[in-house]
From TrEMBL:
<comment type="function">
    <text>Mitochondrial protein that probably regulates the biogenesis and the activity of mitochondria. Stimulates cardiolipin biosynthesis, binds cardiolipin-enriched membranes where it recruits and stabilizes some proteins including prohibitin and may therefore act in the organization of functional microdomains in mitochondrial membranes. Through regulation of the mitochondrial function may play a role into several biological processes including cell migration, cell proliferation, T-cell activation, calcium homeostasis and cellular response to stress.</text>
</comment>
<protein>
    <recommendedName>
        <fullName>Stomatin-like protein 2, mitochondrial</fullName>
    </recommendedName>
</protein>
<dbReference type="InterPro" id="IPR001972">
    <property type="entry name" value="Stomatin_HflK_fam"/>
</dbReference>
<dbReference type="Pfam" id="PF01145">
    <property type="entry name" value="Band_7"/>
</dbReference>
<dbReference type="GO" id="GO:0005743">
    <property type="term" value="C:mitochondrial inner membrane"/>
</dbReference>
<dbReference type="GO" id="GO:0007005">
    <property type="term" value="P:mitochondrion organization"/>
</dbReference>
<dbReference type="InterPro" id="IPR050710">
    <property type="entry name" value="Band7/mec-2_domain"/>
</dbReference>
<dbReference type="InterPro" id="IPR036013">
    <property type="entry name" value="Band_7/SPFH_dom_sf"/>
</dbReference>
<dbReference type="InterPro" id="IPR032435">
    <property type="entry name" value="STML2-like_C"/>
</dbReference>
<comment type="similarity">
    <text>Belongs to the band 7/mec-2 family.</text>
</comment>
<dbReference type="Pfam" id="PF16200">
    <property type="entry name" value="Band_7_C"/>
</dbReference>
<feature type="domain" description="Band 7">
    <location>
        <begin position="28"/>
        <end position="186"/>
    </location>
</feature>
<dbReference type="InterPro" id="IPR001107">
    <property type="entry name" value="Band_7"/>
</dbReference>
<keyword id="KW-0496">Mitochondrion</keyword>
């Protein structure tokens, strides 16, 4: 638009500020708004309405598309910056910011440059949060750090119609000297864990060996106990069996003696034992006791009554026995 010989100021013809897109559409009366975009329309320099996706009609000359806002999720790379931790270590850190415009009106008129504003807010918030953490906690609590930065950005960006969805730290660069110290610390920690694991393995091995020896001793003692119990039970059974057999033999002998010719059979048995005993005289010792009538077998058989009692190698008076000592018999 030109007046007679008088140029219009350039600011009147300059396009409005751009929001996320490279150019602004021209008012062609009939407009088609793409999906996930919001076109802010001004009528005679004042906000009029926001065009929705689809078919829209505008009045030429009066209506003007002032801003175009994308409603998609926007990714902004936060430049690398320096930050000092709680233990005075300088870090070089950068990140990625994920945004979405929730209110196109506030995003258009609430702040001059939303991208620049959010980026600066992310950087200042990151420096502030890193100053509260030590170097070790920075690496351990990256997730907590990201959450704190997102909360701080959302508190300020609510007036801009922008919502920060998430913030991710990309790279953390530490000074070379600090990196060497961290590497040495990691190696020392690994050696410590290896030593601890080795000692624990040795302890477990010693415990297992001691437990095995303990169980072996317990089992051996139980086996010995069972053996002694079985042996005692066997001896008791043997004694009982012998006693029973002897009792039965005595009963049979008594029954046999009570029969006819029982005394004659008993005399014959005594005579046989007498002759057998004389054949073994002086084989085990050089001192023997003989009766006075050793050659009279009939008289010995006739004496079925108990024998005279001997005491200390001497015959009791009246027993009719004599003591004979041989120097070397057999």
């Amino acid at each position: 638009c030109m007046n007679a010989g008088r140029p219009v100021p350039a600011t009147w013809l300059a396009p409005g500020p751009r929001r996320w897109l490279s150019s602004l559409p021209v008012n062609t009366v009939v407009l088609f708004v793409p999906q996930q975009e919001a076109w802010v329309v001004e009528r005679m320099g004042k906000f009029h309405r926001i065009l929705e996706p689809g078919l829209n009609f505008l009045i030429p000359l009066l209506d003007r598309i002032r801003y175009v806002q994308s409603l998609k999720e926007i990714v902004i790379s936060v430049p690398e910056q320096s930050a000092v931790t709680l233990d005075n270590v300088t870090l070089q850190i950068d990140g990625v910011l994920y945004l979405r415009i929730m209110d196109p009106y506030k995003a258009s008129y609430g702040v001059e440059d939303p991208e620049y504003a959010v980026t600066q807010l992310a950087q200042t918030t990151m420096r502030s949060e890193l100053g509260k953490l030590s170097l070790d906690r920075v690496f351990r609590e990256r997730e907590t750090l990201n959450t704190c930065i997102v909360d701080a950005i959302n508190q300020a960006s609510d007036y801009w119609g922008i919502r920060c969805l998430r913030y991710e730290i990309k790279d953390i660069h530490v000074p070379p000297r600090v990196q060497e110290s961290m590497q040495m610390q990691v190696e020392a920690e690994r050696r410590k864990r290896a030593t601890v694991l080795e000692s624990e393995g040795t302890r477990e091995s010693a415990i297992n060996v001691a437990e095995g020896q303990k169980q072996a001793q317990i089992l051996a003692s139980e086996a010995q106990k069972a053996e002694q119990i079985n042996k005692a039970a066997g001896e008791a059974n043997a004694i009982s069996a012998k006693a029973k057999a002897k009792s039965e033999a005595i009963n049979l002998l008594a029954a046999a003696l009570s029969q006819q010719n029982g005394s004659s059979a008993a005399s014959l048995s005594v005579a046989e034992q007498y002759v057998s005993a004389f054949s073994n005289l002086a084989k085990d010792s050089n001192t023997i006791l003989l009766p006075s009538n050793a050659g009279d077998v009939t008289s010995m058989v006739a004496q079925v009554s108990p024998r005279p009692v001997l005491a200390a190698g001497r015959a009791v008076p009246g027993s009719g026995s004599r003591c004979v000592r041989q120097a070397n018999v057999g």
